[in-house]
Amino acid sequence: MPPAAPEPISPRSPRVSAARRLAKRNFRGKERLFLAEGPQAVREAAGHSTAAGATLVELFATPEAVERYADIVGQAQAVGARVHLADEDVIADISTTVTPQGLVGVCRFLDTPFDEILGSRPRLVAVLAHVRDPGNAGTVLRCADAAGAEAVVLTDASVDLYNPKAVRASVGSLFHLPVAVGVPVERAVAGLKQAGVRILAADGAGDRDLDDELDQGTMGTPTAWVFGNEAWGLPEETRALADAVVRVPIHGKAESLNLATAAAVCLYASARAQRAYGGCRSITTG
Fold first, then answer.
1. N or C, fewer C-beta in 10 Å, the chain?
2. Per-residue pLDDT at 284 exceeds 50
3. Centroid of chain to Cα 251
4. Element (H, E) at 122
5. Does pLDDT of 129 surpass 70?
6. Could you tell me the end-to-end alpha-carbon distance of the chain, in angstroms, rounded to an integer?
C-alpha cells in the first residue's frame, strides 16, 4: 500500500510554532530537537537512527518539494516521521536560510557520550576547542568525515553543534560520525591520552612543523587534532595539554590558513600516515 499523502498544515498550527522556536538554542536544548534544512540534510537524517529511535521525527515540505523529492518524503514516512504539507510561507517562517529549498526536518539530538567514543578506541579524532563560528564548526566536521576521522569532540567552550548554520555547513556529515558535545578540554585530552591517542594541537605558532612530523614517521599512531578559535587560536593552557604543537607550513606568501583549511590539511596528513602505517579503520574498511 502506498504511503498516505501528507496532510496540509496551517501557518497557525502549534507544530509550526514549535518548529520555529528550534532556531533558538535554549529551545533546542529543552526539547533536544534541532532543524535540518534542505534535501541533503533531510535525506541523511531520514537514514539515521540512535538508540532513541529514528532521528527524523517531523518533516515540513512544500507541494513542489513533495513532488521533486518524493523519495525523501517516502523515506521520512517509512521511518515514522510526521510529514506536513506546508506552503512556502510556512517553510520561510520555520527556515533559517534566505532561500529555503522546500524541506525542513525536525530531528532528535544525536550526540554521542564521550565515554562511548573513548570505548571505540578511535584512531583519528578532531577536537574543537574554543571554536565559536558555527559555519567553521560544521565545515571542520565535514572535513573530519571526509578524512575518515572516527569522532569529533566539541568542548564546552565551543559553539552549539545544532546551530542551524553548523548543521548546514556540515552538509550531512553530522549524521555520519559520532560527535560528543560539551566536554571540558582538559577531560577531552586526558581521556584521549588514556585511550592511547596522541594529542596534537594545531597552531600557526607551533614549534613543530607538519612536514617534519610526516618525514619523521610520527603521524601513523592514533591521533587527536585540537583546533582552536578562528581569531586567536589556542590559549597557552590548552597548548600545554598537547603532546606537540604543530604548525602547517606556509610555503608561499599567504599570512595564514583559515581554520577549516588548516583542519583539512592536518586531518588528511594523519589519515594518509595511518594508512601507510597499518591502516586507518574508517578508511580501509568503510
1. N
2. no
3. 30
4. none
5. yes
6. 35
Contact between 52 and 80 (Cβ < 8 Å) = no
Question: Residue 143, SS3?
Answer: helix
Task: Measure the CA–CA gap between 200 and 239, rounded to whole angstroms.
Answer: 9
What is the full DSSP assignment across 146-195?
HHT-SEEEEETTSPPTT-HHHHHHHTTGGGTS-EEEEE-HHHHHHHHHHT
Cβ atoms 59, 101 nearer than 8 A: no
User: Can you point out the beta strands (E) in 20-163?
Assistant: 33-37, 49-50, 53-54, 56-61, 82-85, 103-108, 124-128, 151-155
What pLDDT sits at residue 286? Answer: 37
Half-sphere exposure of 193 (CA within 13 A, CB side): 13
Which residue, among 104, 103, 107, has the nearest Cα to 66 in the 3D structure? 103
Output the pTM of the full model. Answer: 0.89
The per-residue pLDDT for 256 is 84
235 closest CA partner among 226, 225, 247, 223: 226
